[in-house]
Amino acid sequence: MKVIIKLADGFMHLFQVGGETFISWMTGIVPVVLMLLVAMNALIALIGEDKIAIVAQKASKNPLGRYMLVPFLSAFMLGNPMSHTMGRFLPEFYKPGFSASIMQFNHTSNGVFPHINPGELFVWLGIASGIKTLGLNQMDLAIRYLLVGLVMNFIGGWVTDFMVTYVSKQQGVTLSKTVKIDE
């Protein structure tokens, strides 16, 4: 009977600690994420979606713009999953590379910009908690994670371009490299 009681106590303690963690987030990270989302939506409304589209079109002309600038701007301004929608402004040929890039960036930017991917925040907070326990700087880790992510996003997107070229030739499909947006 003592074993059963000990297991039940341990089980309940797990949920009590989870509740305490949840309440700490409600007074800490959740308001920050909410305010960042409000600020980004206000910024998009002030700038105008049409102007954002123009920036995306111009940036799509080179790999650095396509796989570093556009993913960063779309993730920062729109968050996950809305950041994927910026791919609509890119030519068909580059959409697979953009998808590869933005999917990676939504994960590697959480330490600095938690509003981008709040669903992944639990992973980041777990890692950051370990870093804090070791007495190390969490922002140092967040910046390194972001910078490595930007480089890997670029590589992933550009490599995907080469794969699209190969598969397009193999399948006899021609994808447009120019963007056509209905005005």
Q: Which short descriptors sum up this protein?
A:
183 residues, single chain
Write a concise synopsis of the structure shown:
With about 180 residues, this protein is mostly helical. About 75% of the residues lie in helices and about 0% in strands.
Describe the structure.
With 183 residues, the protein is mainly α. It has a domain at 48-171. The protein is 73% helix and 0% strand. It is elongated and about 70 Å long. The model has no long low-confidence stretch (mean pLDDT 84). Keywords: Membrane, Transmembrane, Transmembrane helix. It comes from Pseudolactococcus plantarum. This is PTS sorbitol transporter subunit IIC. One of its GO terms (cellular component) is membrane.
Average pLDDT confidence is 84
N- and C-termini, Cα separation: 73 Å
* Gyration radius from CA atoms, angstroms: 21 Å
* Count of separate DSSP helical elements: 7
InterPro entries: PTS_IID_sorb
Pfam family, one: EII-GUT
Protein name: PTS sorbitol transporter subunit IIC
Keywords: Membrane, Transmembrane, Transmembrane helix
List the SSEs and their pairings.
Blueprint: H1 2-27, H2 29-47, H3 49-59, H4 63-78, H5 95-108, H6 121-133, H7 138-171
